[in-house]
Design a protein that fits this description.
CNF1/YfiH-like putative cysteine hydrolases; six-stranded mixed beta sheet; 21% helix; 265 residues; 25% strand; single chain; alpha+beta; globular
Length: 265
């Protein structure tokens, strides 16, 4: 149920399940140059700050947003409740470390950043709560997805009402790992975890792991209805001309964002 739109000329990937302003950016449609061409949202990888500010201006215009709250990602499981008081501008003093954001404040954009990791956007249209989280493999196996659902539940969400969009990220076809990742997947999902691992499962062997599938399984375990979970089939490494990919670029890259904001009342 994912599709592509281009409000104000900015390409975005969106999910039909999410009934709130949202989008997964690509690396297209921005003002950055060189290795950061063209829509780079990173503040700490060496891009021209003025180009990055212009990229954010275009993103805000595309989604009709004035304020954004930022993650400062550490591959953990902290999910912060945020309001307009937590909003900042690019290159302002950084936000506290966290890999997830949750709010019940309309019109406030939440943004997480990826370049192969898995972005997840959440919307509860009943209680009017939104959230976003960044799930690298460490965050995935530590259940950042489930922690985000718990944070929404503390604000009154029924997990059965929550819609989740698991956005573009590295897929099983390209996420080759050592034995530590399959071990961690089996530790969090038990025997069911083997369904998301392709290849030998002995120590010292290489395997391919489906992080999107693991996150979907954890969302279902957290109480989401399977029909309320949308999973993008796009692989950022396979499609590195469209999306930023850390692996494909060998680290010489920018970052894309996943953004969501509750409708204004």
């Amino acid at each position: 149920m994912f599709s592509e739109i281009a409000p104000n000329g900015l390409p975005l990937t969106v999910s039909g399940l999410i009934r709130a302003a949202h989008g997964f950016t690509t690396r297209l449609g921005g003002a950055s140059r060189g290795i950061f061409s063209s829509l780079d949202l990173s503040e700490d990888r060496g891009d021209d700050p003025e180009a990055v500010r212009e990229n954010y201006r275009r993103l805000r215009a595309a989604l009709g947003l004035e304020k954004l709250c930022f993650t400062r990602q550490v591959h953990g499981t902290d999910v912060r409740y945020v309001t307009r008081a937590d909003a900042r501008e690019p290159f302002d003093p950084p936000s506290p470390p966290c890999d997830g954001l949750v709010t019940d404040e309309p019109g406030l954009g939440l943004i997480v950043f990826t370049a192969d990791c898995i972005p997840i956007l959440f919307h509860d249209p009943v209680r009017r709560i939104a959230a976003a989280c960044h799930a690298g493999w460490r965050g995935t196996v530590a259940d950042i997805a489930g922690r985000t659902v718990e944070a929404m539940a503390r604000l009154g969400s029924d997990p059965g009402d929550i819609r989740a969009a698991v956005g573009p990220g590295i897929s099983r076809c390209c996420f080759e790992t050592g034995p530590e990742v399959p071990r961690a997947v089996r530790a969090v999902l038990g025997e069911d975890g083997q369904a998301y691992i392709h290849g030998p499962d002995g120590d010292g062997d290489r395997s391919f792991v489906d992080l999107k599938g693991v996150n979907r399984a954890l969302l279902i375990r957290a109480g989401l209805t399977p029909e309320h979970i949308d999973v993008s089939e796009e692989c950022t490494m396979c499609e590195h001309e469209k999306y930023w990919s850390h692996r494909a670029s060998m680290g010489r890259r920018g970052s894309q964002g996943a953004v969501i904001a509750l409708p204004k009342e």
